[in-house]
Structure formats: structure tokens, C-alpha cells
Amino acid sequence: PSLGLEDWLEALGADRKQLFISVDEALEVNRKLGLKSFYGGWKVWICWLPETMRTDTANKFLKLMEEPSDRTVMLFITENSDRLLATIRSRVQRIPVPALSDAEVTQVLQSKLAMGMEEASQVAHVAEGNLAKAWRLAKSGNEQSDLQGFMDWMRACWARDGQAIVAGSEQFGSLGREGQKRFLQYALHVMRQAIVMHVGTPELARLTRGESGFLDKFKAFIHHRNILELRACLEKAHADVAGNVNGKLVFVQMSLQIHKLLRLPAGED
Fold first, then answer.
1. Which of 129, 138, 146, 213 is a Cys-bridge partner for 100, taking CB atoms 3.0 to 4.6 Å apart?
2. pTM of the prediction?
């Protein structure tokens, strides 16, 4: 019922490539929107994920955005509006679209996949209003494919197991740019949920059964003295990967930093 970025990349066979909107595509859009509507009605152009637009691409759109042809509507649908180029943000009207509620996602899963109420509710809680994510979780048996990789990585970081870290860097490098960014986003998600559980509010955590079982023990190592540094470390790695820095080197450096942070004593909360 709903496809996300990962689903599209997989369908296109481009799951190992970094997604971006090219200058050639911008020129083609400019050409098509400059044509007269065949039936004399409105022309509507929908741009999905405009945050993947590079600066040189955005420059090709600026004149069209400032002076669009008659009866033309341009819709930019973004998942991360703060990542939009400033030149784009300053020329559009923002219309926030709220995420689906857990009840709405539960209803879809029950009607489309014939899931039970309890199971559908748990998947919906983890998905945080993302129907595509809920669909993938339900199809994969309520577990995320990155969980085992994350657990192995954290154990290697804690033990400072050089052999395991190097092996992990090889696996990380084989994911491709988009896969690497997805894994780092998943790591950030788990870290956020770990601190939620650490402060004694597990009912607020959005976790699968497997993640919950792992974090019951792992949460002790995520606390107020290291969570901000861990987040910054993962975010920097994400930015480096997006900037085409060698993924293997990023992974090894990040792992050594995480080892130091995990070893910090919690102290008093």
C-alpha cells in the first residue's frame, strides 16, 4: 500500500547507489513544464525527496519556481525539510503533513494483512506512523534486518575486537552509500530508544521484540555521560558517508570512538 525509499531503490536495482536528482533531470522537467497543456488544464509536477537535489540541480529550478508558466503547480514532498537547500526553502510554502496515528496504521495492517489486533498494534507502535516501515516489519516477521549486525557491532566495539571491527567494516562497505546511511540511521534509532529505557520509561520506547530483548542489557551502557557524544559520532559518520568518504574507514574510526564512549562509567543520574 505504501512504498518507501528503500523499496524504490530495491525495485530499481539501485540499492547500492547514492540517490540524487541530477542536472539532466532538472533540464527535462523545465522543458516539459514549459510545454502547453494538451487539454488546456493545470500542469502538476510532483518532486519526491527534493532534499536529494544538489546545488547545481537546484539552480536550474530557481527561475521556474520564481516565474512558473501559467496554471502550473509544483509540489515538493520531503521527509527531511531541514535538509532542503536554502534556495529551495525560501521559495516554497510549507504545508506540514502529520504522520499516521498508531490506530490508523494498525487498521491498515489488520485489513491488508489480516494481522491480529495485538500484533498489528505492536508493529504500528514501532513504525511511528511510517506505513512503509510498518509494512516491511510485518512482512519480515516483526524484526529489522539490521538488528543482528548492530548487536555484533556493539559487542565488537565494547571488547575492542579489532578482527571483528575490520570484518564489520568490510560488510559495512559492501552495503553501498544508501545502505550505509540507512544502517547509521537505524543505529541512531536504537541509541535513542536505549536512553529512553535507561531513564526508566520503557513504555515510551518503540522497539521490536528482538530489539527490546537486546536493549534490556545494552541500555546500561547508554547514559547521560555518553549519549550526546554517541549521537554526534553517528551523525558525523552519516555526513561523511553522504559526502562520499570511504565507508570502511568511516566505520573503523567510528567503532574506536564508540568503544571509548561505551566504556565511560554512568556515574549518578
1. 129
2. 0.70
